[in-house]
Design goal:
479 residues; 2-enoyl-CoA Hydratase, Chain A, domain 1; eight-stranded mixed sheet; six-stranded mixed sheet
Amino acid sequence: MSLKQIMFCGNEFIEAELPDDTRVLSAPVHDDILENPKEAVLKAIRNPIDHQPLKSLVKEGSKVMIAFDDMAVPVPPMAPNIDNRQWVIETVVEELYAAGVRKRDITLVCAIGLHRKWRRTEIASFLGPNIMKEFSIGQIINHDAEDRENLVHLGLTENGYDVEVNRRLVDSDLSIYVNINWVPFNGGWKSTMVGLGTYNVIRHIHNNEIYLDEKGVSCMEPKRNLMHGRIDEMGRHFRDYMDVQGKDRVFQIETCVNNQLPANFCWIAAGDVEKVHVQTLQYLSDHKYIDVKGQADILIFGLPDFMPYSMGTIINPILLARMGLGYLFSVYAGFPVVKKDGILILANPCIDQCDPIHHPSYVEFWNEAFERTRDADELYDIFGEDYANRPEFIHKYRFGYGFHGVHPVQAYCTTSPPKKYLSGVFVGGCKDNKVAEKLQWEPFASVEMAVEEAKNRLGRDASVTFMNLPPFFIPRVEK
């Protein structure tokens, strides 16, 4: 007998026949929904956690920045006119007006970090028509990590990490951040330090040293993960700087979505960055995690042709690797779902394609850098600084809606630890073997053939686990 399972394979669904003793992991039921989102937002901003109410922080003449998460989250995207950011920003703007703040003194900033800038029509898809009609082109802008006139370097943290951010974060009378948490990877100080940061900041947290943490702590565990520790250190440095300047601290508004497809607004908290994020993490722990006993020899999941960095464009092989190994393999707490020296089986056709407009440096990285070496750590060491500082890549990031030049190098370095941990990465449903082989994956025509070969190598009694994604969830694994 066999166990039939439906899974993503690129832009299609396939039905795979898995061994009948396959363990299937699925998202927990999480269908909470805010029946009155506006009322929930008002309650949060009028009764914030360890912070003065929003209305008391501003007056006529106050300069206000409202920063918000970009279109990379959540995945899959929310349906039009129900997005958390739309509900929150519309309500916050009304509260600012009621406190006397003038429209001309409000700037909305899409916090892209090193992601690409988003066109106004794209931003409208999640902020909604009311906000877009209310504010002019110059008042809804993208953060620009290369606009030196509008950046400020605030020195180094105690361990030598740069803190360099959008000048509006420092100069505004009040800075508000609005985010969507669908995973514990986001939120907290990451919102401002990364979303409104620069390469000088992001190089400390997206590099081949961070992803070689010998403790194997997942980036989905903020309390233990090295990357989050560095981000928090940057945030505290920024907080202390603002305190010395006598400036109000960031007013953080964190929201969560449920496991429905499309997702719905289900939770909100506002106030102090760190204390709000503690509550966010607890909410996610209560609703997004499942307890799993024991690791598998073979782990299987489908790989769709969409992920955070392909929103509004197409996926490419580097992003495919980033999603399969850097993201989905690393989605766990405690221990990986698959054992050391186990085998990971992905389902994807592996198409050799890339968007030269939105992913300009990806094209050169895939076609030229990979001719030098296939080793992710070497690729980072050789090309990281080069791609970060190339004038043509910087220009395309600033003015051509392209991801920052260093982005593919940083994305691909996240694949190194999983490849060293596993004895093999197989891809079923592969249509272009050359793409798989270039990624150092082993191609198979079907998932069934990949499973058969995995059992040949690991033994016929090798255990199999299938992660049924989406919706998203995090296995809390105990050995």
